[in-house]
Structures are given as C-alpha cells and as structure tokens.
C-alpha cells in the first residue's frame, strides 16, 4: 500500500510563494497518475493539478495555470508543487493523491497540509 507524505505549506502574504512536496513510500510506477487537490471550507474537494508519471504530462486547474508548476524527482519518489503569485483564494488544505493508473480513482492520499494566503 502506497503511503504519501507531504511537506511544505504555511502562511504567506498574497503574491508570495510556497512549495509542497509529496513523497511516496515506494517507487511510483509508470502507470501512476499523481495529483494535487485542495479542500476549501464549504466546498467540495477540488482538483488543482495532475502529473501523468509515464510521460510527465501535466494538467492544471484553470485558475492556477501560469502560477503553479509541477515537477518531480524520480530518485526520491517525490512530486513537487511550486506555487507562485499566491492569492487569498488559494487558501486551503492541500492533498496529494495517487491513482494506480489513469483508469483508476485516486485511492492513496497524503495527510494534507494547510496553505494560508493573507490579503
């Protein structure tokens, strides 16, 4: 069973930057789809970005395009989410997730990390 451990997050002023990391307890398979989601009070969990591990294809939520960037380190089984030009509406608890393939749902989750952007 894959375990995901997140680091990063915190409190930053609007316009600031943060980097989140998500490290898997085992090698991330080529078929995996890795993603970031966020929970905002009063809303359903929303998709932020995804990383198709086989070819590095990325997708982003429209509102974060141009500000957030995914990257990875194969040797560390780690995915990163660099968040720049943060806005107060980015405030949320962020979760990384893993799906065993593109056809599978995200079934493994990190512990979540709070990101707070002050105005």
User: If you compute it from the alpha carbons, what radius of gyration comes out, rounded to the nearest whole angstrom?
Assistant: 13 Å
Strand content: over 45%
Mean pLDDT: 96
Order of helices and strands: EEEEEEEEEEE
In which range does the helix fraction lie? under 10%
End-to-end C-alpha gap: 40 Å
Low-confidence stretches: none
Structural class call reads mainly beta
Strands, total number: 11
Q: What sort of overall outline do the alpha carbons produce when their principal axes are compared?
A: globular
Question: How many H/I helices?
Answer: 0
Biggest sheet descriptor: 7 strands, mixed
Structure write-up:
The chain has 119 residues and is mainly beta. Helices cover 0% and strands 51% of the residues. The protein is built from no helices and eleven strands. The strands form two sheets. Strands 2, 4, 5, 6, 9, 10 and 11 form a seven-stranded mixed β-sheet that branches. Strands 1-3-8-7 form a four-stranded antiparallel β-sheet, with no helix packed on it. It starts with a strand and ends with a strand. The mean pLDDT is 96.
Task: Please give the structural blueprint.
Elements: E1 4-7, E2 10-13, E3 18-24, E4 33-39, E5 46-52, E6 57-60, E7 68-73, E8 78-83, E9 92-99, E10 108-109, E11 113-118
Parallel strand pairs: 2-11
Antiparallel strand pairs: 1-3, 3-8, 4-5, 4-9, 5-6, 7-8, 9-10, 9-11
């Amino acid at each position: 069973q894959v375990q995901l451990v997140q680091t990063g997050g915190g409190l930053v002023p609007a316009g600031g930057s943060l980097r989140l990391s998500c490290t898997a307890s085992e090698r991330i398979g080529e078929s995996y789809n890795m993603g970031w989601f966020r929970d905002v009070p009063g809303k359903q969990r929303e998709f932020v970005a995804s990383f198709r591990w086989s070819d590095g294809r990325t997708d982003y939520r429209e509102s974060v395009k141009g500000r957030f960037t995914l990257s990875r380190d194969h040797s560390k089984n780690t995915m990163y989410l660099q968040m720049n030009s943060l806005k107060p509406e980015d405030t949320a608890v962020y979760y990384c997730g893993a799906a065993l393939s593109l056809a599978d749902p995200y079934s493994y989750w990190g512990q979540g990390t709070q990101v707070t952007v002050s105005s």
